[in-house]
């Protein structure tokens, strides 16, 4: 049987790993955005929109998870994240900065939905 100390250690290890992974992705995402043809200002604006989207969507996606169930919330996040990945892979958002900013908000919505399903 796990002890409270081992549960806490496991939680903190997973939290550290998730935080490190999230921090590394910012540099890679910025390079991706610059390679897609965005200027420095546009790339950092896209990252700012992602961060703002995470803040805005965090509570509503938690409400969705509590209302319809965590599994369905996780599924919704997975479907949304897949759509965002296909959008980026298809370079649909290359046409306009506004579409790129909307895609960043959509990706934030997907990312904030997924953890709601894992809690």
Describe this structure in words.
With 119 residues, this protein is mostly helical. The chain has one domain. The protein has four helices and no strands. The chain has helices spanning 4-35, 40-68, 70-89, 97-118. It starts with a helix and ends with a helix.
Brief account:
With 119 residues, the protein is mostly helical.
The computed structural class is mainly alpha
Strand content: under 5%
Unreliable sequence segments: none
Q: Main beta sheet, described?
A: none
Helix segment tally: 4
N-to-C SSE string, H for helix and E for strand: HHHH
Amount of helix:
over 70%
**Mean of residue pLDDT values:** 78
Distance between the termini: 21 Å
Number of strands: 0
* Outline type: globular
Radius of gyration: 16 Å
Number of domain units: 1
Task: Present the secondary structure layout.
Layout: H1 4-35, H2 40-68, H3 70-89, H4 97-118
Helix pairs in contact: 1-2, 2-3, 2-4, 3-4
